[in-house]
Write a structure and sequence with these properties.
Helices cover about 50% and strands about 10% of the residues. It has helices spanning about 10-20, 35-50, 65-70, 90-100, 125-135, 155, 175-195, 205-210, 215-235, 250-255, 260-275, 285-295, and strands spanning about 30, 80, 110-115, 140-145, 160-165. Helix 4 links the parallel strand 2 and strand 3. The structure holds zinc ion. Zinc ion binds near residues 62 and 67.
């Protein structure tokens, strides 16, 4: 469900949920993503949120609605998923979709079409889709997904509301000794921050600046922080650890001094700061901000 993405993809999540709340839904979205499979799930969750009469979004069961169940079972005709047939998405696939959708939505307010790898629309398919996007029917929402937005036809991009998802790096803790040392430093940094708050300034040289020097290093440091806190959140909410499985006692230590609210706040804050690495030339300022703000939560 879409609430699963509240923390991982706060910008996309808030943007779309607000659009629905304010009744400003676009007819066409282009999701610019790095992990296509995961964001396909996001697109389906969004469609479900749009279509379910109860705006099904959270962990509670949507009891009055068999639509949700049918969406889960891939058995709901008003959501269509199109993906490349071989190398390309072909014209017949787009025409077939238009045919199927040409009648008004019967069971739901919207019909949703999800097109995966839209950079692989061939010329003819793209032309048919363009017509479709130019004269949108009120009840049809098209969601295009690509992990290669540079290859998507400009004419298509210009007719969609583009939503850029935050990149998730491949995250894998099994690396060499040097990497392990970095992981240990970050954990030491987190522990100092959680237990001794502003005293973290006394250890930043050893835990951060000596290990993370370049811009890439800093992105990696934030990535470690984020995944660590996500795992603490997993722990607190009774879910399985995903990344720091071998660091359970460290996770427990941090879980003891945080509740879900605090963790959510911290994760959001880390995502915000990580996005600033690209534009912010002064890393020290960024890390100062990190320590001060995290200590306050
Ligand atoms: Zn429902």
């Amino acid at each position: 469900m879409i609430d699963n993405y509240k923390i991982e993809q706060p910008l996309a999540y808030n943007f779309l949920i607000n659009a629905i709340k304010n009744n400003r839904i676009s007819h066409a979205y282009l999701f610019d993503v790095s992990n296509l499979n995961d964001k396909k799930k996001f697109a389906i969750a969004f469609a479900k949120y749009l279509i379910c009469h109860n705006h099904y979004s959270n962990d509670e069961n949507c009891c009055n609605c068999n639509i949700c169940k049918r969406i889960d079972n891939d058995n709901f005709p008003e959501i269509k998923i199109i993906e490349p047939d071989g190398l390309w998405i072909k014209k017949e696939q787009i025409l077939g979709l238009q045919n199927e959708f040409s009648t008004k939505a019967i069971e739901s307010k919207y019909k949703v079409c999800i097109i995966l790898n839209c950079e692989q629309l061939n010329k003819y398919a793209a032309n048919s889709l363009l017509k479709f996007l130019e004269e949108p029917e009120e009840n049809i929402i098209t969601i295009l997904l690509t992990n290669n937005i540079g290859q998507v036809l400009k004419t298509i991009v210009s007719r969609c509301q583009v939503i850029t998802f935050q990149k998730e790096m491949e995250f894998n803790l099994t690396h060499d000794e040097e990497y392990k040392q970095k992981v240990n430093n970050i954990i030491k940094f987190i522990k100092t921050l959680e237990m001794k708050k502003l005293e973290t300034f006394l250890v930043t040289k050893n835990t951060w600046y000596d290990s993370f020097k370049s811009k890439e290093d800093n992105i990696m440091a934030f990535d470690l922080l984020l995944h660590f806190y996500r795992d603490v959140l997993n722990y607190v909410t009774g879910k399985k650890l995903k990344y720091f499985i071998d660091y359970i006692s460290d996770i427990e230590d941090i879980a003891k001094v945080n509740d879900i609210m605090k963790l959510t706040k911290k994760i959001r804050f880390l995502v915000e700061l990580q996005n600033k690495i690209d534009v912010n030339v002064n890393n020290e300022l960024l890390i100062d901000k990190l320590i001060i703000n995290m200590a306050e939560v």
